Amino acid sequence: MYGETKSITVIALVAVIIAALLGGCCTKRDVDAINDRLAMLESQSRDTQNRMAKVDSLMSATTESNRQLQNDVRQSTDALGRQLAQLLENYSDLISRLDRLPQQPLRLPPGSSPGAQQGSTAQPPTGPQPSADCMNTYDDAFTQMRRGEYEFAAQGFTKFLADCGTHADAQNVHYWIGECYYSQEKYTQAITEYESQIKDYPSSPKTGPAIYKLARCKQELGKAAEAKQLFQRLVKEFSGTLEAEQAAERLKDL
C-alpha cells in the first residue's frame, strides 16, 4: 500500500512537470523543487524498504527461534522423563533392599570371627551363595553401575545370576545387565538381555522398562518398524505408566 501511494505521488509530480512544460509556465525553481521532492520520496521509499526488510528478518528469526525452543523443550522433557524413570527404579530397588536388611546376619570383616588366625587368607565361596552374599554381590554390581563402571557391573550381575539364580532379585538382573550394555552403546548385547528379561520374567516390574529400552535399541540400530511395534505394545498393554507415555511421544516421530 505504501509503495502504491509513492508511485501515484511520483506519477502526479511527473504529470505536473509535463503540464508545466507544455504550458510554458514552469521555471527552473519549480523544476528544482520538484526534483527535491522526488529525491525525498525516493529516500523515504528506500528507508521504508529497509525497515520492511528488517521486519521480515526479525520475523524469520523469531519463527526459527520458536521452532528451536520447541525442539529444546521436547528434548529436555524426554531427558527428564528418562531421569525420573531411572530414579524411580533406583528408589524401588533401595526400598526392596532396606526391607530385607533386618533379616540379614551381621557381616564381620575377614579375620574378625572367633578363632580366626592371624595372616589367614579368605577363600572365595564356591557353589550357591548364602542370601547375605547374594545381596552383597547384587549391591556391589549395582553400585558399580551407578558409578559408570559398566563392564565390572555387568560381570557382577552375571555372577549374581550364576550363583543366586533363585534369589528374589534375579528377576531384575537381566534388565540391569542390559542397562550396562545400553550405556556403552552396545545395543546388540543389550537387546539379548532385555529380551531375556521380558521372556523369563514377564511379571517383573522391569518388564515395561525392558520393552521400552528394547525399542530404543531397535531405533538406534535403524529398525524403526520393530521399534514402532514395541512402542505400540507399551501404549496398549502398559497404559498409565511412564514408559507408555514415553512410547507415545516416540511414536509421533515414527
Structural category = mainly alpha
Quote the distance from N terminus to C terminus. Answer: 46 Å
Q: Please outline the major beta sheet.
A: none
Q: Which oligomerization state do the chains in this entry correspond to?
A: single chain
Give an overview of the whole structure.
Residues 99-127 have low confidence and may be disordered. Helix 3 packs antiparallel against helix 4 (150-163) and helix 4 (150-163) runs antiparallel to helix 5 (170-183). The protein is rod-shaped and about 115 Å long. It contains 9 helices and no strands. By secondary structure, it is mainly α. Helix content is 75%, strand content 0%.
In short:
The protein has 254 residues and is an all-alpha fold.
Task: Give the topology, please.
Elements: H1 2-23, H2 28-100, H3 131-146, H4 150-163, H5 170-183, H6 187-200, H7 207-220, H8 224-237, H9 242-251
Helix pairs in contact: 1-2, 3-4, 4-5, 5-6, 5-7, 6-7, 7-8, 8-9
